[in-house]
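Attaching the record inline, Q. Sequence:
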Amino acid sequence: MSGRLSKAVQGLLCAALERYRDNPCAVEVLRHHLGRLARPPRIAIAGGWRSGKSTLANAILGEEFGPVELADGRPVFTWYEDAPSPCIATYAPTGARQELAVTRTARGVRVELPDSAEDVVDVVVGGRSRLLRHMTVIDTPPLQPGASEEGRSSGAERILRAADAVLYLTPEVRGSDLWFLRQAQEGMVAAAAPINLLLVLSRADEVGGGRPDALLAARQVARHQRRNPRVSPLCVNVIAVSGLVALAGRLLTDADFSALAALAAAPRADIEPYLLSADRFVSAASIRVAAEVRRRLLERLGFCGVRLAMTLIRVAGCDSRAKLSAELVRRSGLPELREAVGRCFVDRAEVVRARSALLSVERILRAEPRPGSGELFARLERIVAGAHEFRELRLLAALHSAEVSFDAELAGEAQRLLGGGGTGVHARLGVELDSGVDELWARGLDALARWRGLAEDPLFDRAQRRAARVVARSCEGILAELAGHR
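Structure, as predicted:
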């Protein structure tokens, strides 16, 4: 189905190019989106000051890159993309490009910008990465709530134009965060397809002052926010993550593990008094690990991360660096985030790229109406209204937030048929990859009959019947795809 959407969007872009061929700015934007239809989706990491953006970007990428800043401390847009070999380049507003030397350290890549880079607005970091073959990651400057003369924040405007999807980071949901989430849904296309934003409760290890159960408490806060009627309609999911703990887990060294193991081996009665605060932990004179090593552990793991690591070594059998590293990453929330990014954005790359292209066409048509643009706008509306892919993602988000509720068995089947566990036919029908077409066809017919019946079930409320119709339409799409192979 998404192939048909891409083809329709491509046709609209070409028609808009013909209509606006005498407008160089519009032509540049439209050609840019035509070229992007076949490229990995662009995923921006956005948020306010000290929201943990660069730490989470490093955790996702698995290397310590930055943050990247100019000589005067000004942050820039940093693009991480796939490249045959490590490379770093800067871009000025004029498009001028400057290659920089790549510096590798024991913990990753260090980006040092020259003092002459005052007019740089973008830094592109390229390298070989399995993850970057499927997505381009953008680490963005901190957002400052407020509006420009046009009524929108210029920083937020650029993020929403540059990215196909956004991970919006905030330690706790405030009014300023809702301001950005609402801004991301402005316009006909965005309001009809609010499918490109994941809300990330970052710095999860600091919940409750970094108490021992901070990560668990943060997950409970995330579950509550998924059901918050002010938040759930504005994003596809809410996930709690500690980028610091995740990055520490991915980059944990043997020296780090040895120090943590030594601390965990100390008698509890001797060490517990020093685990009441970070200052006590560092300043203690009677702990068997040197103060400088303890300070380094706090910088890398945070206070919650140090206590968690010690507990895992003591009672969870994490008796090696590899085991402790894997458990820290798992508990940080990073696997859940990466799964959500894969399910919502990477697996549906065609859909989020098509959405970005439609947004750009809408902006051009509204900013510069001309004879014939009304016909293009009607064509745009038809594409948005007929895009079942958008409805699938909206329903997945509604099921996840319990905005639409079925019993556990039906909810699980609905999520699977909608592509929540993978967009391929086999994944949607829940069968093995070696299953034949006849078996797939029988499964599809059975699912279609069941969900068509549920769509007419008088015991269901209106929202449930509407959701069942969307699932039934997905079943029809599965059968239409299978029909070509029979």
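Residues 291-315 form the longest helix (25 residues). The mean pLDDT is 87.

More tomorrow.
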